[in-house]
Design goal:
54% helix, 8% strand, disordered N terminus
Length: 419
């Protein structure tokens, strides 16, 4: 009796496998080739090539692997991982440029993130073949979950998501305000799955092929419609109340400094919404321990900002990138009432350490004030600066170092920090 039941279960499983078999086949339908084709399409769709139309093809190889009843060849998941590993090696190529020691990090990171595609395939195959759930429901859900996991586990690495390929297609991706790039990725997988099911229907499927075509078209139209409504509301709002938008933005910046006079200075209803300048120099990242490199970076950004603001003094916000503001003078948080305890190894130089920290704490505000004058060459300037800097919190025991973003107001004061 038990033997009969086991045979019956095996037969029912085989039926489910056959029901999800695809019509086409051949040498190209092996897991390694299919995974490699998806990796190539993904690479083409992302920078630097950025042929975004290829992103709609990227999931097809993985989805075909999922629909295949049994995976051919030895170690199919190792081949799938290797194909994705090759993609990440190319995509993360720049990591190794900063220092020879980063070759190990480059290889390790590529090896780690390459795990998520095989994981997606394993989980989705289980739900489709063992649990009989529809591919159209399971594939998008599992893909989005794996992207979320990659974006959060081990501090997160949300780079190279499917949705990133469509970053310039603002007329299509406004659904990102509902779920970020993950929502856009989910839309891509829904459309790719529906089109695969339409073009190569599963055997013994009770779902008409037209349903899958309708899902694909409907998903794209829904995203287009939502994007049109969202962009339309924004443009209408900007057209009708440009002064109010700008005034509220100025208040939001000024609220960080608790300066009641700044909102009035920022409010000018005759002008359009915020005018923002992004300053980006071309500097190689090199970890050689040279303290002058940080100073050189600061000077380049200061000089570029001076040239920019002398040409256009009508700015509301200037933005510098990560670490550009430090210049060996980190932002410091001190408690005047607390005693500064030196780090291990410097106990016998306590007074010298305390004097050094307090003396350097005075240099930070002078640096911020000097850059504020560059950002606002005219006395009536209203521009804020957001810049990346190191922040040392001496209030903690032991002290902590953060990679932070500083908000410097037009008066040269650090009005806010994010770290």
């Amino acid at each position: 009796m038990e033997k009969h039941e086991r045979e019956s279960d095996m037969k029912s499983t085989d039926v489910r496998h056959r029901e999800h078999a695809i019509a086409p086949g051949g040498w190209w339908a092996t897991p390694g080739i299919l995974a490699l084709s998806s990796s190539i399409a993904l690479a083409i769709s992302l920078p630097p090539l950025h042929f975004s139309a290829a992103i709609w093809l990227a999931p097809l190889g993985w989805l075909t692997i999922i629909r295949t009843p049994s995976l051919a060849g030895k170690r199919p998941y190792l081949k799938i991982w290797a194909a994705n590993f090759a993609f990440w090696l190319i995509y993360l190529w720049g990591i190794r440029n900063a220092h020879v020691a980063l070759y190990a990090g480059w290889l390790a990171l590529a090896a780690y993130v390459a795990i998520y595609v095989p994981l997606f395939i394993v989980l989705t195959r289980y739900l489709v073949h063992r649990r009989g759930l529809p591919l159209l429901l399971t594939a998008p859900a599992i893909w989005v979950l794996t992207e979320i996991a990659r974006g959060h586990l081990f501090s997160g690495f949300a780079v190279g998501l499917l949705g990133h390929a469509l970053v310039e297609k603002t007329w299509l991706i406004q659904i990102a305000d509902l779920g970020g790039a993950y929502a856009v990725s989910g839309m891509i997988v829904v459309v790719a799955t529906a089109m695969l099911e339409f073009l190569f229907p599963v055997r013994r499927s009770s779902t008409p092929r037209g349903v899958f075509l309708a899902v694909a078209i409907g998903t794209v139209l829904a995203s287009l419609g939502y994007s049109a409504l969202t962009i339309g509301r924004h443009e209408q709002s900007s057209s009708n109340s440009a002064g109010e938008v700008r005034n509220e933005a100025g208040k939001a910046l000024s609220a960080l400094e608790a300066d009641p006079s700044a909102p009035e200075a920022a409010a000018d209803r005759s002008r359009p919404p915020l005018r923002i300048a992004l300053v980006q120099e071309s500097l190689d990242t090199v970890f050689d321990g040279d303290p002058e490199r940080s100073v050189e970076m600061f000077r380049k950004y200061r000089d570029a900002t001076r040239a920019l603001c002398e040409q256009d003094s009508d700015l509301d916000l200037v933005v510098w990138p990560e670490s550009a503001f430090t210049a060996n003078i980190p932002d410091q948080l001190l408690d005047d009432a607390a005693e500064l305890n030196p780090p291990p190894g410097f106990e016998d130089r306590r007074r010298e350490y305390q004097e050094f920290v307090k003396a350097r704490s005075a240099e930070g505000p002078r640096k911020a004030a000097s850059v504020a004058r560059v950002v606002n060459p005219q006395e009536t300037g209203r521009a804020f600066l957001i810049a990346g800097s190191d922040t040392i919190d001496y209030r903690a025991e032991p002290y902590r170092i953060y990679n932070s973003a500083l908000l410097v107001n037009p008066q040269g004061e650090v009005a806010g920090r994010y770290f």
